[in-house]
Design a protein that fits this description.
The protein has 297 residues and is an alpha/beta fold.
């Protein structure tokens, strides 16, 4: 029995997202440009505007662009930068408004319902920044130490973290982690979501929040560059460690293979270490090992 027209139309509509996502390289070839999505105000990974962007993730995407030029024989490929927010960045990838998101994003099962991911580009450690003059009842618990000299009770350990305002970057796993910790510890504290790392640090500087949780290397970078950086403190403690990757369209293995090929070639060469050193400083043995592990032969 022939399939009714309405049923065929519904079946076609169901396949449209997959068809659109499978055409990244075709879209690039037809348009003559590679659209790089990024989140401004997120150094050392990305910063800038629609005219020009820079950062570690931006440089990785430029390596992807070189791979596209080589594979598609497009020496005159144009790069277009598309600033995004953490709230709309994954939607932009899923809808094909950008070809790749040049940003470090934790690959979660929920996010994989919407987008795919490259090989990991960095191992992020969740740290915190506070003011140097914050009370010891806040500073010591963030270091993992009790803020009193008497018997150690759960209530007294949590007292230093209670009734404070903590900021996290919107749309990151830091939000879920912070909510879970506040609930587990029974804290009466307020959680604020910010649009960028820059905003989070500024809120600490201006005392609008007591602490901002983000990648520790990013926080150290802001502390070093901020005019009031001497007033800030970034403890050595890491609260979580996660591998992060760059989102791209689902159901497009050809483009994903191209991206992973570009990243692997970079990480297995001296250029990969030089690029890492440019944005993060000298490599530790662990960092050098992670560059190797985050690539494929």
């Amino acid at each position: 029995m022939p399939i009714p027209y309405l049923a065929r139309l519904l079946l076609l509509c169901a396949w449209l997202p997959a068809i659109a996502n499978a055409a990244t390289l075709e879209r690039i070839r037809d348009s003559g440009q590679l659209v790089l999505g990024f989140v401004p105000g997120n150094p050392p990974f990305s910063d800038g505007d629609a005219r020009q962007a820079d950062g570690y993730a931006i440089e990785l995407c430029r390596r992807v662009a070189s791979q596209v030029q080589e594979q598609l024989a497009m020496p005159h490929l144009q790069l277009r930068y598309q600033p995004l927010t953490t709230g709309d960045m994954l939607d932009a990838v899923a809808a094909g408004r950008v070809d790749i998101l040049c940003a470090p994003v934790v690959e979660s099962l929920e996010r994989r319902r919407q987008v795919s991911f490259s090989l990991p580009i960095f191992t992020a450690g969740l740290g915190v920044v506070v003011r140097q003059d914050a009370p010891a009842t806040l500073l010591l618990p963030l270091k993992g130490e009790a803020a009193h000299s008497g018997p150690t009770w759960r209530a007294t350990i949590n007292q230093g973290l209670n009734r404070h305002r903590f900021a996290v970057l919107e749309g990151t796993v830091s939000v879920d982690w912070a909510r879970t910790r506040i609930r587990q510890l029974g804290l009466q504290s307020e959680l604020v979501e910010v649009d960028s790392n820059r905003e989070g640090v500024e809120q600490v500087v201006s005392r609008r929040v007591d602490a901002f949780f983000a990648d520790r290397l990013v926080l150290l970078n802001y502390q070093a560059q901020h005019p009031q950086g001497a007033q800030l403190w970034v403890p050595e403690r890491l609260f979580e460690v996660e591998a992060v990757a760059m989102p791209l369209a689902r159901d497009d293995e050809d483009f994903r293979l191209l991206v992973d090929t570009a990243l692997s070639r970079l990480n297995r060469s001296g250029d990969g270490e030089a690029l890492y050193r440019r944005f993060f400083g000298e490599l530790s043995e662990q960092s050098r090992l992670m560059l190797r592990l985050n690539s494929r032969p």
